[in-house]
Amino acid sequence: MTELKERLRADLTAAMKSRDELVTATLRMALTAVGTEEVAGKEARELSDAEVVQVLTREAKKRREAAEAFSAGNRPEQAARELAEGEVLAGYLPQQLTDEELNALVAQAVAETGAEGPKGMGLVMKALTPKIAGRAEGGRVAAAVKSALS
């Protein structure tokens, strides 16, 4: 079992013992998503820590989007719950890049690839994706690349 998955399970046990309903429910949901990802496809496999981070990032994004939808639908209690679940998941994700750090990485990738204009966006994204690896949301990265190339 990977280190991150073991940590999720240990924290779930601790949350259950301390009767923390929010953390318990959130970690159960996260472990279920990881388990689902492990059995998806043609044959079951063990996820690496990087793949577990991808699953947790996807789940955290779902929580943010749900919170926005609940807020727009005038349901503040559910929005607060979704945001709280997102905060629990954020504790297991790598530190997110600041805008300055992201812009510096984008500028470096643009310089490396020599890309110009909107047509070079794919080249820059291809060079940038491994460097960012879960430390910034794809939409943020695409917007930064687009502004750097225009």
Structure write-up:
There is one protein chain. The chain is mainly α. It has two domains: about 5-90, Uncharacterised protein YqeY/AIM41, N-terminal domain (Hypothetical Protein Yqey, Chain: A, domain1, Orthogonal Bundle); about 100-150, Orthogonal Bundle (Arc Repressor Mutant, subunit A). It contains seven helices and no strands. The protein has helices at about 5-15, 20-40, 50-70, 75-90, 100-115, 120-130, 140-150. Helix 2 (about 20-40) crosses helix 4 and helix 3 runs antiparallel to helix 4 (about 75-90). The longest helix is centred in the middle third of the chain and has 24 residues, at about 50-70. The termini are far apart.
SS-based class: mainly alpha
Which word captures the global form? Answer: globular
Give the tally of β-strands. 0
Averaged pLDDT, please?
A: 89
What's the CATH class of the largest domain, please? Answer: Mainly Alpha
Helix tally equals 7
> What's the number of structural domains?
2
